[in-house]
Protein 1
Amino acid sequence: MEISREDLERLLDQLREVTSRLDRLERLLNDSEAPKKPAEPTTSWPTMPEPHAASSLRPTVAPRQMPGPRSANLEARIGSHWLNRVGIAAFLTAVAYFLKFAFENDWLGPSARVGTGVIAGILIVIWSERFRTRGYLIFSYSLKAVGIGALYLSLWASFQVYHLFPSTIVFLCMVGVTGTACVMALAEDAEILAWFAIAGGFSTPMLLSTGENREVALFSYLVLLDVGVVALAARKPWGRLLLLGFCGTLILYLTWYLEFYDIRLRETTLVFASIFFVIFALAPLITTSRPPAREVTRMAIAVLNAATYFLQAYVMLMEASRATMAAFTVLIAAGYLLLESFEGTGRGLEVGHKLRRIHLALALGFIIIAIPIRFENYWITLGWLVEAGVLLGVGNRIRSDLVQTCALAALLMAIARLLFVDNFEPGHLIFDLRSCLYGLAIILAAAVARNGSKRSDELGWTIGRVAALLMNVLALTALSLEVRDYYSGQLRLIRPAQVGGVIRAAEQVRSIQIARDFTYSALWMTYGAMLMAIGFWRASAFVRWQALLIIAVTTTKIFLYDTSQLDRIYRILSFAVLGMILLVISFAYQRDWLRFDQKAIRS
């Protein structure tokens, strides 16, 4: 078998590399095994040794305090990083004072001043390469930062201070500085240089601002700059550049919006805002995630981008139409559903499981938000209930905890509106919109309770219990509201002129109020008894405790309120029904239908 010349040279190169590594390891091993000069001990002798304490004649050696590795690392960091930065700042300060002194004394004209700054910046960047080739990377990058900063400031002065060149030429020169810095960052694999370049790129519009509204030019430049940022983050594991690009874009956008935005610019502004949204929505998908800690940056970009874009659209579209904003919100949700289903393939297209879950959560969240934007009053509650039902079905089918969590969120918001916000006009008893909404909420709560009872984990068990409790709260509230509406309707029918005067009308009002209060007590006692029966039938202590709580509240009401307010016949009926229910429940416990005694013996 013949070996080609290229394979032989490659093999020899690998052999030389292995040999050099072995030599370095041997030198390190010899250095570690070399005898070290012992430190001179600090000796103290006793002045009056006791005869029986011969061991006290031994010298006691005080250990010498040696600096630990942490203090050495801190010292090295201060010496190499912070002193370097302070020294550069001091040097720049000296140069600034010298130039200021020279300008005040007219040593240099405007052109010479700008030229001096540009030449000095270029020379500093070139000079920094000498330190980089010798291994002084931190110092080299610091010098490059100084040189790049001098170039930006010199170009800014040429336009804003001395008016030597038009804005177009200066803008192109600044873009050239930004591009050159990006090329150096890629060539030297230096993320810090990329940060300097991107920061300079976002500073360019502010440095060249003339106070005029140039929306298309500004946002077109930002689009190109953002694409460049994403390209850098996709080529190198520099995910934090995305955060810098997002913040820079947001700052410039808000600065322009607060000063120049007008309703006549709504379409153009919304188009550019959508372009920015698409760029930073796709950016986490096409950037690398090495090291794993950079995943946090990608998640933050995904959430911040969604929230920012929605708020921008909300401000611009809500003044036009609620229906338009609701449709736009659903469109955003559809976009995130598309991103969630996106499967990355190839280099740099890695879609993490957490990122996909965030996209799905954002999609479902925007659907939830779209309902109150589009509808009003109790239609919001109905929309959330319908969405909760759909998400519960989908979540159970695909076995997704995230979808079920969003369903629970929609259900809880609907229940909260139903109990504390919605104000229904009295209508037909039982068969009205309020009863339908309460019935739908009870059915969904029962479904959640049933699903929770099938799960073996602690969280699922707790959610099932809370859902069962909410189901009973909703049912008892709905029935109580029906009682209230029925007697309210009876009270509205009373007319003093028709019943024989004001006194007769007051007596009828009092009679209806007494009947209403008795009905409340009877309803609650009956419901508590029904729950107790279910608790015995299902052998559920949780249900029985709910029944005991309802019966306790009803008992308190009867003894404290019904005794003094109800007529004699209603008072008798209240106590009779209460006593009968309590005796039946007591008898069930005394018969030990649940086998408490046998369970205690076995335990």
Protein 2
Amino acid sequence: MRKLFLLGALFAAGLSFTACSSGNEEVAQEPSLDNKFDAQGKAYVNIAINMPTSGGLTRANDEFTDGSSDEFKVEDAVLLLFNGKNDTREHEDAATFISASKMNNKVSQGNDGVRISDRILFTQQISKGNANLAGATGLLAFLVVNHNEKFAVNDDNTLKINGSSTNFTGTFGDLKNIQLSELGNTTNGLLMTNAPMSSKAGGASSNPSGALITYLTEIKSTDIYNSEADAYAGTSFVDIFVERAAAKVSVSSSATGTLVDGSVTYNASNLKWEIQNTNTKYYVERHISNSYFGSNSANLTSPGIYRFADSQVVGTGYSLYRTYWAEDGNMSAVPDNVPGSGETKVQITDFSAWNSLSSVQYIAENAVDQNSLKQQYTTRLVLAVPFNDGNDFYTCSWQGGDKIYSTSDMAAEALEFVKTLPSYTTWKAANSSYDVTSVTLTPQADGSATFTAITATPGATSTADIVTEANAKAQLSFFKGGMAYYKVLIKHFGDDETPLPTAISGTAYNDIYGSVETNRIRDFLGRYSVVRNNWYQIDLQGIRHIGKPSVPDVPTDTPDDEIDAYLKVRINVLSWGVRRQSVVL
């Protein structure tokens, strides 16, 4: 009886599959490859969709987890064949497209018939199309799982991609550079493609410099069968490792009680959150190079952790390692969805569209290069935390910003404040028998509030000078519905593998990250970013101060590591891959 291979543990280990042959040996010349196909150009192969079964825990906060069962189900798949070698990046990129096939003949599958539990095995008919393989260098495979109608296979095994009216006829390099805008979903399946793998290990003290990074899986002549029956009876199969195109973000909170630096109470269990600064497009295949693989931060206590490749093989019998970085289509430019001047992209008047603590959100990757660790480039969360039992309140600068006032109490406190101003002293000298009796405060759209009138006893002279000075010297904030807003920039490698230096000379970009680009790459590339197939868990651990009364602006030319002591946050990254990030607001 034929051995069946289950595919579910794959996602438990991070769903970071790749499409490379076992050991990644060079594709040999296959002069008889053409003879493996019948007169109609058809043949059969056994395809195993895999996930890694172990994690090297390269980074201190790296874990592997299943996530939701719907995140690793297989609804459909398309197998693309290329003619070429994968012994160098140039050869792999130059591999030419041959044909596409819908994969619909599962031999074994997940425990519930749909989801990957370790390995799903297909016996698959393939076509050589119009290619003459008599002198071919080799067949290479690329897999698209849950294509969500973006990869349409025609009856003659040609292919249309992303709604194009013409058939795809290019190279693998051409395919890699196509951009999609839909990530799929847990109903129809999250889109997955081959995961790039390194030929060398990273991790502690293992330098992967010069590693060969491969995407495509070799199909050898011995993997090809003349009939479906022969394939089903055969023992040779082609292992393809895949990864999700989406990144996952979730928020948890262990923060309760009062502010770290005050006595104001809050209830973070009712917080809401949204994501800003995201990309709306992503490459069909994750891009990554080996030019920075030898980087390890000089700011680590014990330097020598090479963060871009895993330290353990992707699975038993392989000499391939996961890779942990991406190069998206706009690394040195702002993401596609960045708030413009005067807009927030997040509506604060209606929280029905915001996420709760039980929600997750899937987004496209947004990689930030070593010269773009600035807030206008970096994907961030906005957290909205309720204070004062969800009732409106004010804060004021002259009381430190962490003391809350009802509307009536703020008016009384503001009246006492104006009596401390020099303009009031001058006014009072000219109006000795009169006094100011009340103030009028008006909330503004940005969450600030202004003194709009100061009322005096009848017969007194104008209080306009007092109003002017009060607005110049005081800062008032109005928190509609008791909501305070905080920003959290998402870290990828974060403090574990790209820590800041112990001494920073100032707040300018060069003061924090240095002025030498090669050192920035070594020390900080990937510190902040979102990479596909990673789960970014934002854990709110505490709040130090009341936040902003409206969604914080996205500043320009402000370093990501701007000093901000509002939150205590930890980010954990699971390869799905999860990255946890804890914050104190």
Protein 3
Amino acid sequence: MPLIHILLMFWCFGSLGGNVPKDFPPLPDFQKRVNYIAWYKQARHVSDVDNAYLAYARFMPGLIGSTVSKSDWPKFDGMLTATEEQRKARYPRWDGPMPWDPRRHPRWEDSYQRTKGILKQYAAAAKKKTLVAPPNKNGESDTLDNLLVSILLPHLANLNRPCSRGIREAAWRMKDGRISGKRFARAVHTNLRVAHQLKDSVFMIEGLTSVAIRQRTYRNIRWALAEGILSKKHVVALAKLLRRIDRDSVDMAPVLRGECAFLLDALQYVYGPITGGAPRFNGKRYQEVTRQNMGAANRFALGARLARNPQAAAKAILDAHVAMIPHMQPGFDKKHMQALGDLYERMKKSSKVTKALLLGSSGYGRVYQIAAQCEADRRATHLLAEIFAYKARRGKWPKSLKALGKRAGKLIKQDVFRGKPFVYILHGDGPVLYSVALDGTDDGGQHNDHWVNGDYVFWPIPDSAELLAASRLYRVPDEKLTAISAIDAKRKGKTVFVSAEVASISSRPSKKHGLRHTVGLSQGGATIELFYYESVGKKLTENQKFKPGMRIRVEAVVVEGSGHTPRLKLSDARNLAIEPQE
């Protein structure tokens, strides 16, 4: 075990005999009520100059001090901000972003125009140092709505979904057929700054929001590299930006303080109102907090009534959370994962009331795992930026991660799931980069989205070939598309790009090619046949399979059919894309 972890453990356990550890909530003595909302105010005190909350309150509804009405909040309905159902219905490439042309996507453009003012203010607020939500309760009265858990965090919904996604989709908006490298970098900068504003929160929901924004931003960067939308200059600048603003590892240890305070506050409430005498279990309050019936049939609740030592339960809660600190540090180790689970179960079993308060919760091991995955995501994305910057400067891929030198530090090169460098392999068609994932075993780059029973491949992006090919076709300007009515015998042997609607589908045997498939295409009253053979058909994905009425974009070669009639030949599945539906 690293020395820092050993020292932390001695500090933690040495502190439990008397004083409460620094930054942790005080233990209730059940003689005088502890105001845990007041503790939060002190633990998260920050000056108005550094606090981004006030800046967000100027344009977000529902925040404390905000004068903005909900009706003033615009509707986000773009490439990434539409609901999942809408994206899947209108946008076949729902698995990743893509460059989009305002002329072909009026709905997305309307969303962009409606929301760009909000996103400008979001970017300005991101420049603040931290984000601390002022409590909307004072905690002074001994009532259910004055528990620490009752503090509302309305800013999170708007930060996490509309704003963080909106600024990413705006970065993919094309102007004159190109993406702005500067705007893309600003979007990365803004979202990572927002994530860092939340990273030291004592609330788990804020910590997880920070992780979610970081992961989506890292994924966005990898898609940009895959799409090839950034110039060499902007790739080098992006690597430099990440080194400058995203140096902190993903650390969820701070949220243990807030989670501990939530439980202590609830436990104190169950044994209230506090009168200075011996604490007594309050069945009504127990029902309010746990939503459990106190009827005779509920043996679990009746067992909670018999829990007469709340002081011991409170100390068990505090001891467990403090002991978790060294195990919640950035990185991943199965021993720490197991220790977190053991400590959590021990705390859960300390009393029937504590068990009821934690009912339905799976513990902090999953949070530790999510943080470790995000940290692997962070390091791998930094590495890829450095790998692409190396190629931009030298015109070739690095032969190994060592070739990156000091630009990629030792920690960045290290896979959190095995304490050794990420697997980097250079093939003839480019590099491969992956993590061995949760089991710590190298499975030869067999990707698993869930980080189990395989590796996690960062590059090339798994199952991205169809999506990247579709994006290439989407980016062909309308003026370079060929009208079906203009295709004649003079274009024989030439490659054309066509956007059309599928009118009919048929197939027949072919002696040389197994099957020959024919698709009738229609456009503005004109028609033409597109054909392809079985070898191409086998490579079509489920999304690409032709259906009457669907709109397609295709790159095909003009060939001569029977009666000298021109036809289109599809020779590669990667030359077919389904048009996004608005």
Protein 4
Amino acid sequence: MSKSRARKILDLHKEMKNCPSRGNWENLWHECMYFSLPNKDRVYDWKSGVNGEDKYGKLYDSSAAHFNELLASAFHGMLTNPATFWFGLTPSDREMAKIPAVRDYLQRLVRKIHGILDNSNFHTEIHELYLDLGSPATGVFLIDEDDEDVVRFRAEPIFKYYLKENFKGEVDTVSCEMQLTVRQMIQKFGEKNLPKEIKNDLQNVMEEKFLVVQMIMPRKEAKRSNLGPKNRPIASYYVVHEYEHIVKESGFSKWPMATPRFMKSAGEVYGRSPSMKALPDIKMINAMMQTVIRAGQKVVDPPLMVPDDGILGRINTTPGGLNPYRSGTKDLIIPLETKGNPGIGLDMASDVRERIKQAFYIDQLQLREGPQMTATEVNQRTEEHLRLLGPILGRLHHELLKPTIARIIDIMKKKNLLPGGIPPELQDIDVEVHFTSQIAKAQRMGEAQGLNTFMSLMANMMQIDPSVYDMVDPEGLVRLNAEIYGVSEEIFRKPEEVEALREQRAQEEEIAKQQQMNMNDAEAMGKVAPLIKQGE
């Protein structure tokens, strides 16, 4: 049975690896990474294990690599900024969100998750993933358990992995290959799990490498009631290819990785990136800069016109050098003026570079130089630019950040790290993720403007009929605005504190009212007393 299952896993891996379009994708990844992510361009030689090559030496222009780094840095700062709380949690039932205990617990959970992320390698690895999204367009973000940091992240290049989608267009099957020595397999899987052929000759093959295939896929026969490693809904297998032997079988409750795509065309598994869109211009500017450099060299150090048999010895072109020539001849060494103009080439290259910049959305992420603007105008223009990134943002939320948070919560459950005191209302309620990063808030500014317009209309209506304000829940309005602007729940007082303040205010108003009545009575008595005295 184990042999048969291993063979099926290897057959599926072979099918994914030999997909007819895979070669086209690898060629495209290589071209894009060669120009825009050269340090990570190892599409065809990653198995060799040789590192340290000079990846920029053959480039004549590094604009694409620079813009890709700017795009990755912008995503890091605007989507997953380590200095802010960039996501929050709410119950799927919106009525539950009104319960103070539920809001307080979810706020504590969000704070703890952010603490785990900040204490792990999340921010270093997520930046590497953003670099991949701008070039090969598809990233692989592994989310593993860790004994020290709770969670450990690893951004892997897509060319090491093979993906398969389900009918929803979601990646649900992933395989990869790795070369492991027997010693490494013992460390990772244990000696007892090795194929018998290896165990029988262990001393002689300790440093020999074998191909191991890892396959992560849905487990059809999973028993939801039994969440043991071999009965969880997502299966993980390690198979030694040469012997068709499963050395490890386990499973996950949540998908253990994120496989985001920058953009994706219908019918394709792998993504499309700004580098792919700008690839013609990227190739062009490299060819143009090569020509401009040659033209500049001819102007700065032009070729020489030398008379035939008029110069004695070899020509000396060093500064202050002497070139003796035959006595009586008038033939001299003169430069060959080609009338070349490198400035025209630089102007043309600048236009191409601007198109590459636009392809990487740098115009949306950075304000252009222009007339002086007020702070309000700057904020409005920034929000307008960020709203143009809505489609990309939605895909990254769905394929990267939500799976990452779900996986972290699953690991926290397994390690009993969830905050104590879970409200009974949350026991059987799904929790939804909402994002509060700068770029996510920009998408909701239209909603905030709608609320402001509504309140202005309400103010006008109240002048006609003040009772219309009774239709609005002021507390709900305040909390909705706080959610849109990403304001933390921590600024709000607890319900019992609010109730105590209101009771205190009511008492103070009652005391003030009583004091006013007493003063009015005293004043009235002061006016009546002289009349009474006069009557006597």
